[in-house]
Write a structure and sequence with these properties.
This protein is α+β, with helices and mostly antiparallel strands. 40% of the residues lie in helices and 18% in strands. It is built from 1 helix and 4 strands; from the N terminus they run H-E-E-E-E. Strands 1, 2, 3 and 4 form a 4-stranded antiparallel β-sheet that branches.
């Protein structure tokens, strides 16, 4: 009798199939984690814009602007104006949108900030109710 050393083809196929399954599961989970990370970045950016509008712009001017960008909202990191896909607020392909309302001569009383998320519903922030104190 000869003593053969090594693996049979069947054993190699089973190990290769199992390794392939593990790789597929790993990359699927990684894709989900990456999507959750992009969603968190989008929410962080919208929250930064919201607080900049409320705590900086509105307190100084008594109204909201008709459009926002890094020129009139200077208190946040300029990188936050760009969504994780590389589009700036105002670009039609951007995940971010600013929708002013009740505007007269560039002075608005209301707004809505939105961002489209991959793993959750749309994230929305609306202006605070200031009861027209100014």
């Amino acid at each position: 009798m000869t003593n053969k050393k090594g693996f049979t083809i069947l054993e190699l196929v089973i190990v290769a199939a199992f390794a392939s399954l593990l790789f597929v599961l790993f990359f699927m989970q990684k894709a989900n984690l990456d999507a959750f990370d992009r969603d968190e970045k989008r929410k962080t950016a919208i929250n930064a814009m919201y607080y900049a509008l409320e705590e900086s712009f509105y307190k100084e001017h008594g109204y909201y602007p008709e459009q926002i960008n890094e020129n009139n909202i200077t208190v946040i990191d300029p990188a936050l104006w760009t969504d994780p896909n590389g589009y700036n607020l105002g670009d039609p392909l951007s995940a971010y949108s600013y929708i002013p309302a009740n505007c007269t001569n560039g002075h608005c009383k209301e707004y809505t900030l939105k961002t489209l998320l991959e793993k959750e519903d749309t994230f929305i922030k609306r202006n605070r109710d200031h009861n027209d104190t100014k």
